[in-house]
Amino acid sequence: MDAVFPTRNDTWQQVSNVQRRWRAIRSDFGLDWVTPHTFRKTVATLIAQELNPEVAAQQLGHTSSEITRRFYISKPDLAADASALLERLGKAPGAVGTDDGRPPQEGADDRIKGE
């Protein structure tokens, strides 16, 4: 097996030298939070999105895609922004949850959807 980043003499890098360079590069660019595990999770997420979680698990050497799904594939941090829809829901005449005390009107759901 050939080294990915060989020395000038075409030999393997010393682990301590790689770690020292890696810390310096991260520090210089303000990327102290980036670790080899960060790259591993990024690769798993990209492969899962473009192909599927099973292929991502194979790439990482996992015997089951469950571990890959649980710990490596990133999940969205935020839900989709539904605030405009919820605002329309609150303003629809007779909509459930309004304070006017009237029962919901026929077709109120269609007005909420903008139909």
UniProtKB/TrEMBL annotation:
<keyword id="KW-0233">DNA recombination</keyword>
<dbReference type="GO" id="GO:0015074">
    <property type="term" value="P:DNA integration"/>
</dbReference>
<feature type="region of interest" description="Disordered">
    <location>
        <begin position="91"/>
        <end position="115"/>
    </location>
</feature>
<dbReference type="InterPro" id="IPR002104">
    <property type="entry name" value="Integrase_catalytic"/>
</dbReference>
<dbReference type="Pfam" id="PF00589">
    <property type="entry name" value="Phage_integrase"/>
</dbReference>
<dbReference type="InterPro" id="IPR013762">
    <property type="entry name" value="Integrase-like_cat_sf"/>
</dbReference>
<feature type="domain" description="Tyr recombinase">
    <location>
        <begin position="1"/>
        <end position="86"/>
    </location>
</feature>
<protein>
    <recommendedName>
        <fullName>Tyr recombinase domain-containing protein</fullName>
    </recommendedName>
</protein>
<feature type="compositionally biased region" description="Basic and acidic residues">
    <location>
        <begin position="99"/>
        <end position="115"/>
    </location>
</feature>
<dbReference type="GO" id="GO:0006310">
    <property type="term" value="P:DNA recombination"/>
</dbReference>
<dbReference type="InterPro" id="IPR011010">
    <property type="entry name" value="DNA_brk_join_enz"/>
</dbReference>
<dbReference type="GO" id="GO:0003677">
    <property type="term" value="F:DNA binding"/>
</dbReference>
